[in-house]
């Protein structure tokens, strides 16, 4: 459709028409409900709070069941996230519930909130990867994105720990946070009231955004706005049943009395259950998708170079952005390749120069040795000549001596003959 057609279409006035009879699209909500019921729902709760603060007990109390629990040690080497998924059924509604425990959080040696942030981001990333697939199956995808973070505050009655403030600040743009004061039976009523006010003012002054129960839907606006004023909920958890009057109720029994979990004058457990499960579960799921996931997705896509408008404020085109990115990438690749090639050539040149230098040194050494050798040879030749001359002189002398000797021998041997001749005569 051309841009002008689009403009005309969107500017066109909508007309209200009355129907002549029953058409049937008023069954749409029923269709949606029945589809959702058959599909089932997933709901994922993240429990953050120091070891032994009562996370598992509260989960068991909330869902009125016994989830597998494994006590955490105070000596974990780092914070680790432990998700456990359960299939629950009430009437004909199926709920795939995942409870994620931040094991080891708040212990002296490993206070770090980073593994929690990473875990939340990983669930967003998995969803984004599924969305970006050519063949997506979001219909039966097990959505593991965290819908709510129950942040367990230690009932000190003092003020929030800086760890709590830092962690909540890091998490508030990624997840719906509902702060709760755990083990509220260990703090007196007047202290609790002051503690709640202090916590809220600290959260506000540190700019921590906690989840607000929505007040835009008329049906729940009133109850939600009342409940917002009760935050943070002070809760007590227990799976123990105690007889009160002639009824068995979940409670914690002490020598001085009984704290009933579901008694609103004892604690805010019922308020938490109402708000979390019965009134706002769908809003928590929706907020996760439309606010937190959307923010993650936007940042991630912007990081990858995608924008809604290009620098000239032209509407964004996925294909153009992709082409530009591809060109940028190829250009970068070429530049890198050229750099590598140049580096290789330089290296070869360097090695060649080194080899040449070595060859020259060797040649010089060889010439030097050759000269020494020639000199030695010349000296030996000279010596040989001298010796030969000496030998010749010696031989000459020897011959002379021999000649002389033979002459004298001849002379001595002729003398007796002469004497004999003289005697005969
Ligand atoms: P880890 O998973 O090991 O970190 O502990 P957790 O936070 O799951 O605590 P858990 O539910 O195992 O409870 C620890 C202890 O606190 C148990 O002895 C519980 O009975 C007790 N407890 C739990 N909830 C409450 C509560 O509301 N008030 C009081 N006074 N004690 C509680
Ligand atoms: Mg536990």
What does this structure look like?
The chain is α/β, with parallel strands linked by helices and 425 residues long. Helices cover 53% and strands 14% of the residues. It contains ten helices and nine strands. The protein has helices at residues 3-11, 28-39, 55-62, 114-132, 162-171, 189-205, 218-228, 269-279, 281-303, 318-424; strands spanning 41-48, 80-90, 93-103, 148-153, 177-181, 233-234, 241-244, 247-254, 257-260. The strands form two sheets. It has a six-stranded mixed β-sheet, sandwiched between helices. The protein has a three-stranded antiparallel β-sheet with strand order 7-8-9, with no helix packed on it. It binds guanosine-5'-triphosphate (GTP) and magnesium ion. Residues 55-56, 69, 101 line the site of magnesium ion.
The average pLDDT score comes to 87
The major sheet is characterized as: 6 strands, mixed
Helix content: 40-55%
Distance between the termini: 171 Å
Query: What compounds are bound to the protein?
Result: guanosine-5'-triphosphate, magnesium ion
Q: What is the tally of beta strands? A: 9
SSE-based structural type:
alpha/beta
What is the radius of gyration? 51 Å
List the helices and strands in order.
Answer: HHEHEEHEHEHHEEEEHHH
Beta-strand content bin = 5-15%
Count of alpha and pi helical runs: 10
Shape: elongated
Low-confidence stretches: none
> How do the strands line up in the largest sheet?
2-3-1-4-5-6
